Amino acid sequence: MSHTFDTAGLDQCPFMPVFGAPAISMERGSGTEVWDTDGTRYLDFLSGIAVTSLGHANPVIADAISRQANTLLHVSNFFTNPQATAAAVKVNELLADATGHAGQIFFTNSGAESNECALKLARKWGGRGRHTVVSAYGSFHGRTLATLAATGQPAKHEPFAPMPDGFKHVAWGDLDEMWASVDSSVAAVIIEPIQGEGGVNPAPAGYLQGIRDLCDEVGALMIVDEIQTGFARTGRWFGFEHDGVSPDVVTLAKAMGNGMPVGACWARTDVAAVFQPGDHGSTYSGTALATAAVSAVIDEMRRLDAPALATSKGARFATALEALPQVESVRGRGLILGAQLSDGIDAPTVYRALLDRGFICNPVNASTLRFLPPLTVSDSELDEAVALVADVLAEVAP
């Protein structure tokens, strides 16, 4: 299968080269399937990186967006709108159930903006001289300068040095190092329940609880980045629920709009109260179009019992992957899974071979394939995926 990008007679690619040269132009999607402009069908087990959790062109979400587009797209934040209010209430209900605390929402356009809001909130909470934020190596929190500084991947910092100050990184999963690094200068710890971009690394047992205890002891905020793990992906509404902890701040995006660019920063009411008018903002915060999608996603996920879907489908898929002789182990929870390949098998090579066969996943590092199918994936699609992966691994195995 050849992958070509039609430049339609353009002298150059119109996009900045931050994603590399686009190889395939996707034209339409339905459920777990997408088709390129040549009509080639692909089974999508990436979901736009954990975004289209209810499937491509989900008719319930599409109808909600269409109705809203014909009613009201946007007003300034001098006003609110019924869609934003309804969506904020629904997100708050989910997080109040999960944390045991009432909270408040700031809507954003992306995960990076959600984390940016959380970082500013932490600095305002801590005050002058208590602005440091601690995160883990291998983490990913965004690509704005502040969220990039929070991201524990020094290679990504280098082209943009010097980074903003006030950020420290510690070894993932090492509570002793975390305790040694968090002192009275620290405003917050930001942590993922499962490191997605870092290789699908679930938090070790007791790790999140240890961070909660530490934050309580020193009076720092615990920020949980649920941008990839939130909205039922792990088999619970939020990844932190598996560990029984209650964060102070939770950041969200990706699946909450099923493709509509939208995110949110949630904070306990007493924490949110440190923000005053003018401290933060966004032209498109709570715009009616995006929040109509959020409400529809939550309603549909509740109707389907999306956490139960992720649990059952994830167990079936993980068991089948683990049975493949070239797979050493499978990490993750629900339908955020990473298959650790045997020594000598290059994940990017496997990815390219799978793409040639019409299957989309992600080589999250040199030895791990990441799978993030829609929560609505069918058993037959799971079986098709396993068969494709098995065939390619058998071909490339040394």
From TrEMBL:
GO terms for biological process: L-arginine biosynthetic process. Its cofactor is pyridoxal 5'-phosphate. Keywords: Amino-acid biosynthesis, Aminotransferase, Pyridoxal phosphate, Transferase. GO terms for molecular function: identical protein binding; pyridoxal phosphate binding; transaminase activity. Pfam families: Aminotran_3. Pathway: Amino-acid biosynthesis. InterPro entries: AcOrn/SuccOrn_fam, Aminotrans_3, Aminotrans_3_PPA_site, Class-III_PLP-dep_AT, PyrdxlP-dep_Trfase, PyrdxlP-dep_Trfase_major, PyrdxlP-dep_Trfase_small. NCBIfam families: argD, PRK01278.1. Belongs to the class-III pyridoxal-phosphate-dependent aminotransferase family. This is Acetylornithine aminotransferase.
